[in-house]
Amino acid sequence: MIQRNYSLRPFNTFGIDVPAAAFASFASLEELQAVLAENAGQLPLLILGGGSNILLTKPVQALALKNELKGIAVVAETDDTIDVRAGAGEEWHGFVSYCVQQGWGGVENLSLIPGSVGASPMQNIGAYGVEIKDCFVSLEAYHIADGRVDTFNAADCAFGYRESVFKRQYKDQYIILSVTYRLQKNPVFNTAYGAIRDELQAMGVTELSVKAISEAVIRIRQSKLPDPKTLGNAGSFFKNPVVSKSVYEKLAASHPDTPHYPQADGTEKLAAGWLIEHAGWKGKQVGNCGVHTRQALVLVNYGGATGKEIYDLSQAVLDDVFEKFGVQLEREVNIL
Question: Which is the catalytic residue, given 52, 138, 236, 314?
Fold first, then answer.
Protein backbone atom coordinates (compact mmCIF):
# COMPACT_ATOMS: atom_id res chain seq x y z
CA MET A 1 0.00 0.00 0.00
CA ILE A 2 2.87 2.39 0.78
CA GLN A 3 5.19 3.20 -2.14
CA ARG A 4 8.73 4.43 -1.63
CA ASN A 5 10.69 7.31 -3.22
CA TYR A 6 7.59 8.61 -5.01
CA SER A 7 7.51 11.76 -7.18
CA LEU A 8 5.06 14.41 -5.97
CA ARG A 9 4.99 16.24 -9.29
CA PRO A 10 1.37 15.17 -10.06
CA PHE A 11 0.24 16.30 -6.62
CA ASN A 12 1.28 19.97 -6.57
CA THR A 13 -0.03 22.64 -8.92
CA PHE A 14 3.40 24.26 -9.31
CA GLY A 15 4.46 21.01 -11.00
CA ILE A 16 7.63 20.73 -8.90
CA ASP A 17 9.28 17.33 -9.31
CA VAL A 18 10.54 16.32 -5.88
CA PRO A 19 10.31 12.87 -4.29
CA ALA A 20 8.61 11.89 -1.09
CA ALA A 21 10.25 9.21 1.01
CA ALA A 22 6.93 7.35 0.85
CA PHE A 23 3.46 7.79 -0.65
CA ALA A 24 -0.01 6.31 -0.18
CA SER A 25 -3.61 7.31 -0.79
CA PHE A 26 -6.76 6.55 1.18
CA ALA A 27 -10.44 6.58 0.21
CA SER A 28 -11.93 5.46 3.52
CA LEU A 29 -11.23 5.75 7.22
CA GLU A 30 -10.29 2.06 7.26
CA GLU A 31 -7.70 2.59 4.51
CA LEU A 32 -6.29 5.57 6.38
CA GLN A 33 -5.96 3.53 9.56
CA ALA A 34 -4.29 0.68 7.65
CA VAL A 35 -1.72 3.03 6.09
CA LEU A 36 -0.96 4.63 9.45
CA ALA A 37 -0.54 1.18 11.00
CA GLU A 38 1.86 0.16 8.22
CA ASN A 39 3.86 3.35 8.70
CA ALA A 40 3.85 2.79 12.49
CA GLY A 41 5.18 6.27 13.14
CA GLN A 42 8.38 5.65 11.16
CA LEU A 43 7.89 8.73 8.97
CA PRO A 44 6.16 12.04 9.66
CA LEU A 45 3.03 12.67 7.60
CA LEU A 46 2.30 15.14 4.80
CA ILE A 47 -1.41 15.27 3.96
CA LEU A 48 -2.10 16.11 0.31
CA GLY A 49 -5.37 17.60 -0.88
CA GLY A 50 -5.45 19.38 -4.21
CA GLY A 51 -1.81 20.42 -3.89
CA SER A 52 -2.74 24.00 -4.72
CA ASN A 53 -1.38 25.63 -1.60
CA ILE A 54 2.11 24.17 -1.25
CA LEU A 55 5.56 24.93 -2.60
CA LEU A 56 7.96 22.00 -2.47
CA THR A 57 11.51 23.30 -2.09
CA LYS A 58 13.34 20.03 -1.28
CA PRO A 59 12.77 16.25 -1.09
CA VAL A 60 10.02 15.42 1.38
CA GLN A 61 11.24 13.19 4.20
CA ALA A 62 7.72 12.07 5.04
CA LEU A 63 4.89 9.75 4.13
CA ALA A 64 2.80 11.79 1.70
CA LEU A 65 -0.87 10.84 2.09
CA LYS A 66 -3.31 11.69 -0.69
CA ASN A 67 -6.81 12.26 0.68
CA GLU A 68 -9.31 10.63 -1.69
CA LEU A 69 -12.36 10.69 0.62
CA LYS A 70 -15.34 11.42 -1.65
CA GLY A 71 -19.09 11.84 -1.44
CA ILE A 72 -21.63 14.67 -1.16
CA ALA A 73 -24.80 14.19 0.92
CA VAL A 74 -27.60 16.25 2.46
CA VAL A 75 -27.56 15.72 6.21
CA ALA A 76 -30.16 18.26 7.44
CA GLU A 77 -32.79 20.54 5.97
CA THR A 78 -35.22 23.30 6.96
CA ASP A 79 -37.57 25.46 4.93
CA ASP A 80 -34.73 27.93 4.32
CA THR A 81 -31.46 26.03 4.66
CA ILE A 82 -29.80 22.81 3.65
CA ASP A 83 -26.78 21.23 5.34
CA VAL A 84 -24.47 19.40 2.95
CA ARG A 85 -21.58 17.16 3.98
CA ALA A 86 -18.72 16.56 1.54
CA GLY A 87 -15.74 14.23 1.73
CA ALA A 88 -12.46 16.06 2.30
CA GLY A 89 -11.00 14.60 -0.90
CA GLU A 90 -13.67 16.15 -3.13
CA GLU A 91 -12.40 18.80 -5.53
CA TRP A 92 -13.55 22.17 -4.19
CA HIS A 93 -14.84 23.59 -7.47
CA GLY A 94 -16.64 20.31 -8.19
CA PHE A 95 -18.45 20.69 -4.87
CA VAL A 96 -19.32 24.33 -5.63
CA SER A 97 -20.61 23.35 -9.08
CA TYR A 98 -22.82 20.66 -7.53
CA CYS A 99 -24.34 23.19 -5.10
CA VAL A 100 -24.86 25.74 -7.88
CA GLN A 101 -26.64 23.14 -10.00
CA GLN A 102 -29.04 22.52 -7.11
CA GLY A 103 -29.66 26.26 -6.74
CA TRP A 104 -28.22 26.32 -3.21
CA GLY A 105 -26.60 29.63 -2.29
CA GLY A 106 -23.56 30.42 -0.18
CA VAL A 107 -20.49 29.19 -2.05
CA GLU A 108 -21.05 30.60 -5.55
CA ASN A 109 -18.59 33.45 -4.92
CA LEU A 110 -15.94 30.81 -4.21
CA SER A 111 -16.17 29.22 -7.67
CA LEU A 112 -13.00 28.00 -9.40
CA ILE A 113 -10.78 28.23 -6.32
CA PRO A 114 -8.29 25.36 -6.71
CA GLY A 115 -7.89 22.75 -4.01
CA SER A 116 -9.96 20.27 -2.05
CA VAL A 117 -12.93 20.42 0.32
CA GLY A 118 -10.68 19.43 3.22
CA ALA A 119 -8.44 22.44 2.69
CA SER A 120 -11.33 24.91 2.67
CA PRO A 121 -11.75 25.25 6.48
CA MET A 122 -8.04 24.79 7.11
CA GLN A 123 -7.34 27.91 5.03
CA ASN A 124 -10.72 29.58 5.62
CA ILE A 125 -10.65 30.19 1.89
CA GLY A 126 -12.36 33.31 0.63
CA ALA A 127 -13.05 35.45 -2.42
CA TYR A 128 -15.28 38.32 -3.47
CA GLY A 129 -16.60 39.10 0.00
CA VAL A 130 -17.30 35.52 1.11
CA GLU A 131 -15.30 33.19 3.38
CA ILE A 132 -15.82 29.57 4.37
CA LYS A 133 -16.67 30.60 7.93
CA ASP A 134 -19.84 32.24 6.54
CA CYS A 135 -21.38 28.89 5.63
CA PHE A 136 -19.39 26.44 7.77
CA VAL A 137 -21.26 24.14 10.18
CA SER A 138 -18.74 21.52 11.29
CA LEU A 139 -16.02 19.12 10.24
CA GLU A 140 -14.89 15.66 11.24
CA ALA A 141 -11.17 15.06 11.69
CA TYR A 142 -9.05 12.07 12.62
CA HIS A 143 -6.69 12.60 15.54
CA ILE A 144 -3.49 10.92 14.38
CA ALA A 145 -1.96 10.18 17.77
CA ASP A 146 -5.12 8.89 19.49
CA GLY A 147 -6.97 7.34 16.55
CA ARG A 148 -10.27 9.04 17.36
CA VAL A 149 -12.61 11.08 15.15
CA ASP A 150 -13.37 14.52 16.60
CA THR A 151 -16.03 17.01 15.50
CA PHE A 152 -15.21 20.73 15.29
CA ASN A 153 -17.78 23.52 15.06
CA ALA A 154 -17.02 27.03 13.81
CA ALA A 155 -15.95 28.31 17.24
CA ASP A 156 -13.60 25.34 17.66
CA CYS A 157 -11.90 26.19 14.35
CA ALA A 158 -11.09 29.78 15.43
CA PHE A 159 -11.30 31.08 11.88
CA GLY A 160 -9.28 34.13 10.89
CA TYR A 161 -8.08 35.65 7.64
CA ARG A 162 -6.78 32.53 5.81
CA GLU A 163 -6.33 30.97 9.23
CA SER A 164 -7.72 28.25 11.49
CA VAL A 165 -6.54 26.13 14.42
CA PHE A 166 -5.39 23.52 11.90
CA LYS A 167 -2.64 25.86 10.71
CA ARG A 168 -1.58 26.79 14.25
CA GLN A 169 -2.59 24.99 17.44
CA TYR A 170 -3.46 21.66 15.79
CA LYS A 171 -0.97 21.75 12.91
CA ASP A 172 -0.08 18.19 11.81
CA GLN A 173 -2.25 16.65 14.54
CA TYR A 174 -5.43 15.98 12.53
CA ILE A 175 -6.52 14.69 9.14
CA ILE A 176 -9.79 16.27 7.99
CA LEU A 177 -12.30 13.64 6.84
CA SER A 178 -15.41 15.61 5.91
CA VAL A 179 -16.86 19.11 6.07
CA THR A 180 -20.50 20.18 6.49
CA TYR A 181 -21.75 23.49 5.07
CA ARG A 182 -25.07 25.30 5.54
CA LEU A 183 -26.43 26.61 2.25
CA GLN A 184 -29.43 28.79 1.51
CA LYS A 185 -32.52 27.79 -0.46
CA ASN A 186 -33.43 31.47 -0.86
CA PRO A 187 -29.98 33.05 -1.00
CA VAL A 188 -29.07 36.66 -0.45
CA PHE A 189 -26.61 37.38 -3.24
CA ASN A 190 -23.26 38.99 -2.49
CA THR A 191 -22.30 41.30 -5.34
CA ALA A 192 -20.54 43.91 -3.22
CA TYR A 193 -17.33 43.56 -5.21
CA GLY A 194 -17.53 45.82 -8.24
CA ALA A 195 -15.87 43.27 -10.49
CA ILE A 196 -18.84 40.92 -10.05
CA ARG A 197 -21.38 43.66 -10.79
CA ASP A 198 -19.45 44.72 -13.88
CA GLU A 199 -19.14 41.14 -15.13
CA LEU A 200 -22.85 40.44 -14.58
CA GLN A 201 -23.64 43.56 -16.57
CA ALA A 202 -21.28 42.47 -19.34
CA MET A 203 -23.02 39.09 -19.38
CA GLY A 204 -26.39 40.82 -19.78
CA VAL A 205 -27.74 39.32 -16.56
CA THR A 206 -30.96 41.02 -15.44
CA GLU A 207 -32.04 38.51 -12.77
CA LEU A 208 -29.55 37.36 -10.14
CA SER A 209 -29.07 33.67 -9.45
CA VAL A 210 -26.37 31.49 -7.90
CA LYS A 211 -25.61 30.20 -11.40
CA ALA A 212 -25.15 33.70 -12.84
CA ILE A 213 -22.86 34.79 -9.98
CA SER A 214 -20.84 31.58 -10.23
CA GLU A 215 -20.39 32.10 -13.98
CA ALA A 216 -19.36 35.71 -13.43
CA VAL A 217 -16.76 34.69 -10.85
CA ILE A 218 -15.43 31.97 -13.16
CA ARG A 219 -15.08 34.46 -16.01
CA ILE A 220 -13.28 36.96 -13.78
CA ARG A 221 -10.88 34.34 -12.42
CA GLN A 222 -10.16 32.89 -15.85
CA SER A 223 -9.38 36.37 -17.20
CA LYS A 224 -6.86 37.03 -14.42
CA LEU A 225 -5.48 33.71 -13.24
CA PRO A 226 -3.50 31.10 -15.16
CA ASP A 227 -4.76 27.52 -15.36
CA PRO A 228 -2.32 25.38 -13.31
CA LYS A 229 -2.83 22.58 -15.84
CA THR A 230 -1.02 24.69 -18.43
CA LEU A 231 1.12 27.04 -16.31
CA GLY A 232 2.30 25.91 -12.88
CA ASN A 233 1.05 28.11 -10.05
CA ALA A 234 -0.66 27.98 -6.65
CA GLY A 235 -3.12 30.84 -7.11
CA SER A 236 -2.59 33.79 -4.79
CA PHE A 237 0.88 33.38 -3.32
CA PHE A 238 0.62 36.31 -0.89
CA LYS A 239 -1.97 37.38 1.69
CA ASN A 240 -3.52 40.83 1.55
CA PRO A 241 -1.81 42.59 4.47
CA VAL A 242 -3.79 44.06 7.36
CA VAL A 243 -2.01 47.10 8.81
CA SER A 244 -2.61 49.70 11.49
CA LYS A 245 -4.32 52.97 10.65
CA SER A 246 -1.03 54.82 11.14
CA VAL A 247 0.85 52.57 8.69
CA TYR A 248 -1.88 53.06 6.10
CA GLU A 249 -1.92 56.85 6.59
CA LYS A 250 1.84 57.02 6.16
CA LEU A 251 1.57 55.00 2.95
CA ALA A 252 -1.37 57.06 1.65
CA ALA A 253 0.54 60.30 2.22
CA SER A 254 3.00 59.29 -0.49
CA HIS A 255 0.67 57.04 -2.51
CA PRO A 256 -2.86 58.50 -2.22
CA ASP A 257 -4.27 56.02 -4.75
CA THR A 258 -3.47 53.02 -2.50
CA PRO A 259 -6.51 50.70 -2.37
CA HIS A 260 -7.62 50.08 1.20
CA TYR A 261 -10.48 48.36 2.96
CA PRO A 262 -11.33 49.57 6.53
CA GLN A 263 -11.78 46.72 9.01
CA ALA A 264 -14.15 46.59 11.98
CA ASP A 265 -11.28 46.78 14.46
CA GLY A 266 -9.92 50.03 12.99
CA THR A 267 -7.17 48.40 10.95
CA GLU A 268 -6.88 48.64 7.16
CA LYS A 269 -6.61 45.77 4.69
CA LEU A 270 -4.38 46.59 1.72
CA ALA A 271 -4.20 44.96 -1.71
CA ALA A 272 -1.00 42.90 -1.93
CA GLY A 273 -1.37 42.67 -5.70
CA TRP A 274 -1.42 46.48 -6.01
CA LEU A 275 1.73 46.78 -3.86
CA ILE A 276 3.58 44.13 -5.87
CA GLU A 277 2.53 45.62 -9.19
CA HIS A 278 3.52 49.14 -8.15
CA ALA A 279 6.87 47.83 -6.94
CA GLY A 280 7.47 46.83 -10.56
CA TRP A 281 7.16 43.04 -10.31
CA LYS A 282 4.07 42.31 -12.38
CA GLY A 283 5.04 40.31 -15.46
CA LYS A 284 8.70 40.06 -14.43
CA GLN A 285 10.42 36.76 -15.22
CA VAL A 286 13.44 35.51 -13.27
CA GLY A 287 14.94 32.37 -14.76
CA ASN A 288 12.23 29.72 -15.14
CA CYS A 289 9.73 31.44 -12.87
CA GLY A 290 8.11 34.84 -12.56
CA VAL A 291 5.24 37.05 -11.47
CA HIS A 292 2.19 36.54 -13.65
CA THR A 293 1.53 39.09 -16.37
CA ARG A 294 -2.15 39.58 -15.46
CA GLN A 295 -2.18 39.09 -11.67
CA ALA A 296 0.73 40.21 -9.50
CA LEU A 297 -0.38 37.98 -6.58
CA VAL A 298 0.44 34.88 -8.61
CA LEU A 299 3.91 33.38 -9.01
CA VAL A 300 4.29 30.98 -11.94
CA ASN A 301 6.53 28.16 -13.07
CA TYR A 302 7.30 28.70 -16.74
CA GLY A 303 8.77 25.21 -16.90
CA GLY A 304 11.64 23.56 -15.09
CA ALA A 305 11.73 25.91 -12.10
CA THR A 306 12.71 24.44 -8.77
CA GLY A 307 10.81 25.16 -5.59
CA LYS A 308 13.82 27.03 -4.26
CA GLU A 309 13.84 29.34 -7.32
CA ILE A 310 10.18 30.20 -6.72
CA TYR A 311 10.81 30.69 -3.00
CA ASP A 312 13.77 32.99 -3.71
CA LEU A 313 11.59 35.02 -6.10
CA SER A 314 8.92 35.35 -3.41
CA GLN A 315 11.53 36.56 -0.93
CA ALA A 316 12.80 39.17 -3.40
CA VAL A 317 9.22 40.42 -3.82
CA LEU A 318 8.67 40.57 -0.04
CA ASP A 319 11.90 42.47 0.52
CA ASP A 320 11.27 44.96 -2.28
CA VAL A 321 7.68 45.72 -1.24
CA PHE A 322 8.82 46.33 2.33
CA GLU A 323 11.65 48.59 1.18
CA LYS A 324 9.39 50.65 -1.08
CA PHE A 325 6.17 50.79 0.94
CA GLY A 326 7.05 49.81 4.52
CA VAL A 327 4.50 46.98 4.41
CA GLN A 328 5.48 43.41 5.30
CA LEU A 329 3.69 40.88 3.10
CA GLU A 330 3.13 37.27 4.13
CA ARG A 331 3.10 34.15 1.98
CA GLU A 332 -0.26 32.41 1.75
CA VAL A 333 1.27 29.26 0.31
CA ASN A 334 2.77 26.65 2.66
CA ILE A 335 6.51 26.21 2.15
CA LEU A 336 7.85 22.66 2.49
Answer: 236
